[in-house]
Specification:
By secondary structure, the protein is mostly beta strands. It has 2 helices and 6 strands, in the order αββββββα. The radius of gyration is 19 Å and the shape is globular.
Length: about 130
C-alpha cells in the first residue's frame, strides 16, 4: 500500500495581520462609554447586537461604534430602536435586532468602512 504524497510546502507563506474583530466591532453606550456588546451583522439601516445581557425591546438606545482609521479612531454616534431580543446559540449570550433612528447617513457609511477595512484579497495559488 502506497502512502499519500506529502503536502507541498509553500516557500512564500502569506502573512495576514490578524485583528481581534470584537475589539473593532464593539458597540458602546454613547452616554456612559460602557460596552453593550459586539456587532453580529449590519446593514445600511440596522444591526444585530450580540450581548451578555438581554436588551429591552421597544427602547431607543444611544449607541457608539469606534473604528480605527488613519487618524487613530473614528467615533460614530447614533440612536437605534430595539425590535427583538432572543437567546443566542452560545450560552450566556443574547442577539438583538435594531433599526437606526438617528444619524442614518453616517451609520450607513459604517458598513462601507468595515468592508474596506476587513477586505481580503485572494491570490491564485500557482
Amino acid at each position: 500500500m502506497q502512502s499519500p504524497p506529502a503536502p507541498r510546502r509553500k516557500t512564500d507563506q502569506r502573512q495576514i495581520e490578524r485583528h481581534q474583530l470584537g475589539s473593532y466591532l464593539a458597540v458602546y453606550n454613547a452616554r456612559t462609554g460602557r460596552s453593550m456588546g459586539q456587532i453580529g451583522n449590519l446593514s445600511a439601516s440596522g444591526l444585530m447586537l450580540i450581548s451578555l445581557l438581554p436588551v429591552m425591546v421597544g427602547h431607543i438606545f444611544d449607541m457608539q461604534v469606534r473604528i480605527p482609521d488613519a487618524e487613530g479612531e473614528r467615533i460614530i454616534n447614533f440612536q437605534a430602536l430595539s425590535h427583538w431580543c432572543q437567546a443566542d446559540v452560545s450560552p450566556g449570550h443574547f442577539d438583538s435586532g435594531f433599526s437606526i433612528v438617528s444619524n442614518q447617513r453616517e451609520f450607513s457609511e459604517l458598513g462601507r468602512m468595515l468592508e474596506r477595512y476587513f477586505r481580503f484579497t485572494y491570490l491564485d495559488d500557482a
